[in-house]
Amino acid sequence: MAHLQEVFEVSQRRACAVLGVDRTMVRYVSRRPDDAKARERIKELASQRRRFGYRRLHWLLCREGWAMNHKKFRRLYSEERLQVRRRGGRKRPLGTRAPMTIPQGPNQRWSLDFVSDAFACGRRFRIFAVVDDYSRECVRLIADTSISGARVGRGLDAAVFERMARPHTIVSDNGTELTSMAILRWSKERNVEWHYIAPGKPYQNGFIESFYPRLRDEFLNETIFTSLAHARQELEAWRHDYNHFRPHSSLGNKTPAEIAGWIKRKTVLGACPQYGCCHHAQRWASKWTTALLVAEGKFGLRPRRDPNPP
Fold first, then answer.
1. Rounded Cα–Cα distance for residues 150 and 128 (Å)
2. pTM for this model (two decimals)
3. What stretches of the chain adopt beta strand conformation (E)?
4. For the chain, which residues make up each domain, given as ranges?
5. For the CA atoms of 12, 13, 16, 22, what is the dihedral angle to 10 degrees?
6. What pLDDT is recorded for position 23?
7. What backbone phi and psi angles, to 5 degrees, belong to 101?
8. How many CA atoms lie within 13 A of 119 on its CB side?
9. Would you say 143 and 149 are in contact if contact means Cβ atoms under 8 Å apart?
């Protein structure tokens, strides 16, 4: 109507006659209130009771003294897009979504994920890998035909026992094994913070994504596995070589074991109350280096003989 009046410079009466529209309909002004206060209260109730539908919310609103029938309430409810969405699938742990800090030492943050390969017969199997984000050590490589959330928890327990230290944070994607109730229970019982990356953004887990091409190119593509036992044996041998002999460019061409060992010795020397004295530093270094070697199983000690035998 306004277009005809503006372009052809005709009156409203003439434009209505041409279009066959009644002028009362064009001039009608709605007297319906905007119900701003009611809309705000409905949104507040919907935010407090996120799983309540419009019927229960209408009952709560009427109990507060608002006079509104169910038809008007449903119209406002729909206009505010407060419909409750049906939940699909099972309950999943949310983990943390806060930005991650850069690790300042070993065992502060571990990254983990899965990679798949095949035996010589064509049967597929999976490899569960854990990497220390600071020292770049390959903490664990677990091969199996099926790896559940409980199996992941047992593998992490074995890694914690082997290193005699548990991580502060673990980073992973949103796979079904890593969002299971077994993992939620494991992280709560061990007091380990579990960080899930955003869906569809694997670069947020960049350390493990950088590790997998090396594992694939240097080992998996060069080895033919005949059985699961053979795969586990070869993976453990490659993990030892990766940690102790393979230089890492981001570590100044040092091995991950050298970085981890240097951090351990630095921590041990820092515990000496008289670190400024060279004599005390050497004595503490020799004492705690022996303790570290014993803990790692590289140096055996004879049992102490009882001075008062029975």
1. 13
2. 0.56
3. 109-118, 124-132, 138-144, 169-172, 193-196
4. 1-30, 32-86, 109-254, 257-295
5. 110
6. 86
7. -90, 160
8. 14
9. no
